[in-house]
Amino acid sequence: MRYRKDMPLVLNGVSFEINPKEKIGVVGRTGSGKSSLILSLIRLVELDTSSSEESKIEIDGIDISKIGLRYARTAMTLIPQDPFLL
After folding, report:
1. Distances 11 to 21, 29, 60, 67, 74 between C-alpha atoms, Å
2. Are 38 and 26 in contact (CB under 8 A)?
3. What one-character-per-residue DSSP string does 1-60 give?
4. How many structural domains comprise the chain?
5. Torsion angle in degrees (nearest 10) through CA of 11, 22, 19, 51
6. What does the pLDDT read at residue 24?
7. CA torsion sign, 39 to 42 to 44 to 49?
8. Rg (alpha carbons) of the chain, rounded to whole number
9. Which residues pair with 59 in a beta bridge?
């Protein structure tokens, strides 16, 4: 994934599996790619398909670039990283 055509890749070689019904958290240092990963999952930023390597995100064996945005976004929950106190 890259933010613009003239920019370097920000997510490169990322691969992981999450088991069914498993809840995960994404943690890491500033600049480690947490927000970029989430933006890719909910397709606010599309993957760069111009590279020679295969670029795709699959959920339950389905390439998310092939399904509608509304359907893809209703299947995930996002908790923002901005801390607040009620």
Report:
1. 25, 15, 21, 22, 23
2. yes
3. --SSTTSPPSS-S------TT-------STTSSHHHHHHHHTTSS-----SSS----EET
4. 1
5. -10
6. 83
7. positive
8. 14
9. 62
d(CA 59, CA 75): 10
CA-nearest of 43, 37, 44, 45 to 18 is: 37
Q: What is the pTM of this model?
A: 0.71
Which residue range is the domain that position 35 belongs to?
Answer: 1-86
| Unique residue bearing structure tokens 């959920």 | 59
Look up residue 63 and give its amino acid: D
Task: Report mean pLDDT in 10-residue bins for the chain, 86 residues.
Answer: 83 83 85 86 79 73 85 76 68
Q: What are phi and psi of 21, to 5 degrees?
A: 65, 15
Q: Are 46 and 39 in contact, with CB atoms under 8 Å apart?
A: no
